[in-house]
Amino acid sequence: MSINGKAYIAGAFEHPTRKAPDKSLAQLHAECAAGAIADAGISKDDIDGYFCGGDALGGGASFADYMNLNLRHLDTTDAGGCSPLIHVSHAAQAIAAGKCNIALVTLAGRPRSDGMATGTTPRPRDPAQPDAQFESAMTVTTANGYAMVAARHMHEFGTTSEQLAWIKVAASHHAQHNPNAMLPKVVTVEDVVNSPMVATPLHRLDCCVISDGGGALIVAKPEIAKSLNRPLVKIRGSGEAIKHQSAGYFDLTFSAAAVAGKNAFAEAGLTPSDIKYASIYDSFTITVLVQLEDLGFCEKGKGGAFVSDGNLISGVGKLPFNTDGGGLCSNHPINRGGMT
After folding, report:
1. For the chain, the helix, strand and coil percentages under 3-state DSSP, each to the nearest 5
2. pTM over 0.85
3. Which of 43, 79, 164, 214 has a CA 20 to 30 Å removed from the CA of 291?
C-alpha cells in the first residue's frame, strides 16, 4: 500500500526551551502536543491516533492517559533517533487503512537539565540484548562510535576534517537566524578544526548540542487537512530499513538510509535532483555526510567535496539543509533529532 497522498502534515510545533529544569518529561510532551494542536486549528478531542517512541518513558499508554487522549489507534514503535520519522510514515499508513483520522506524534526530552553527557558516556545496554555482551566490555559511547565512522570514511575516501567542518559552518549560518538556537554564533572551518578533540577525528564542534525540548506533528487524512485552512503538506513517500552488523562483515561507510531513501524516493516518484531543501539528521558532522551520499545527493566517497565551500548554506549552495541550525546548533533532546 502506497501512502503517497494518503495523509497530510496539518500542524507542527517545536518547543522553544533549550533548558527546562522546571518541567517534567510528560509536561514537555504535552506542551508540544498543545502547540501542534493549536497550529493545526483542531481540538485535542479530534485526535484519535497517537504515535511516540522510547523517549515517552513508561510507554505510549501512560502518556496518552496524561494528555487525556481518546484513541482508536496507538503506535509506540521505537527505532532510536529516527523514530519520529517512522511515526509519520506509520501515521499515514494508519490513516490510509482507516485506523484513525487525525494522528498526533510527539518527541521530548530533558537531558540537559538531567545532566546527561549523552555523547561521551557508555550507552546503557540491557544484558539480554544480543549485542550487549560484545559491546559492553568496550564501553562504546555515541561519540566514539561515530568517530570510527568518520575515521573509516577518511581512510577509504580521503575525506578531511576541514570538509566535515563545512557542515557545522552551514548549520551555524542558519542558526544565527533562530532566536531559540543554543549556538547562534557563526563559526568558521578554522573554529571547528581548532576546537578540542572529543573522539578522534571528531572535534567538539563536530558534535551536536545537548538540549531539553521537543516537538510534535499533526498528521491528518486529506479531507480533514484540506478543511483546516492550513498550508497543505502532502506526505509523498517513506522508507524504512535496518542496517545489520552482518555477522562481523560490517561496512562503516554507509547507513540504512541507502535502502530507506531509495524506497522513499520510489514511492514519491521523485529523485534526489528534484529536492531543493533537505532535513538531515545531524548528531555529528559525519552523520550528515554519510546520509547525503546514501540518499543519492552525491556519489559514495564524494560527500566531502559536496559539502565544502558553503554548498549546504541557504542562499549560497545547491542544497540548503537544516535551516533552523539543526542538532549541531539549535537543539537535540534525548539523543533524537527527528522533528526538532
Report:
1. 40, 15, 50
2. yes
3. 214
